[in-house]
Design brief:
Length: 215
């Protein structure tokens, strides 16, 4: 964890504590959030019933009868300041993509590349899984170099299907359920990170890496 990142602790209702490492996404803040979530999991903190890492924060849901906010905040501060950090999410995933999305040509134009060159640049190196969530099995991957950063669309699509590969804000995302989105659609994949019948229902974790391969 980066030593200069001092998190802000915020109560969420009477059963939640949010540990926020930054106001906006950065590589350091994301790594801090992922690492801290792993540390809490390894520590087995009394009363914590759910650990939810996000892009730059971690939500701890706790049982008030087992631990109070102040006591949990104290445990959090100790974990933040303790030396060493358990590894989190080191699995590698290979995801085959059909680059046939309706926004692909527009995105390539925005970064001043031919479509084939954009695909090559997009797939040039594995991306780190920044977070999962938002919708079941949804995966955020990043970060792309500055030359590939484009804004979100101005108009939200009402729904894209499971397996849609999305692109915006220096990230690539993969849907595992049908969702609305303001991201650019660049392709689709048969890969799904959500099986409600499985335990656990997802296979990809924050901190894993994803290598995208064109079909």
């Amino acid at each position: 964890m980066t030593d200069t990142l001092t998190p802000t602790l915020l109560p969420l209702g009477d059963r939640g504590l949010l540990i926020r490492f930054a106001e906006s996404l950065s590589d350091d803040a994301n790594r801090a959030a992922i690492g801290f979530a792993a540390r809490v999991e390894a520590a087995g903190v009394r009363g914590v019933v759910e650990i939810v890492p996000n892009l730059v924060s971690v939500l701890l849901r706790y049982e008030p009868g087992a631990i109070g906010f102040d006591a949990l905040a104290g445990e959090v501060r100790l974990l933040v300041s303790a030396p060493g950090q358990p590894a989190a999410g080191d699995a590698e995933h290979r995801v085959t993509v059909h680059f046939d999305g309706e926004d692909l040509s527009e995105v390539a134009g925005l970064v001043r590349l031919l479509v084939a060159d954009f695909i090559a640049a997009h797939n040039a190196a594995p991306l780190r899984v920044l977070a999962t969530g938002f919708a079941p099995g949804f995966i955020y991957c990043g970060m792309h170099p500055e030359a590939l950063v484009v804004p979100r669309r101005g108009v939200v699509r009402r729904q894209v299907p499971a397996g849609t590969v999305l692109f915006a804000a220096g990230q690539t995302a993969i849907t595992s359920t049908a969702i609305p989105t303001g991201w650019h659609v660049i392709g689709h994949t048969e890969f799904r990170n959500f099986d409600p019948a499985a335990e656990p229902p997802t296979t990809v974790r924050a901190g894993d890496s994803v290598a995208f391969v064109a079909s």
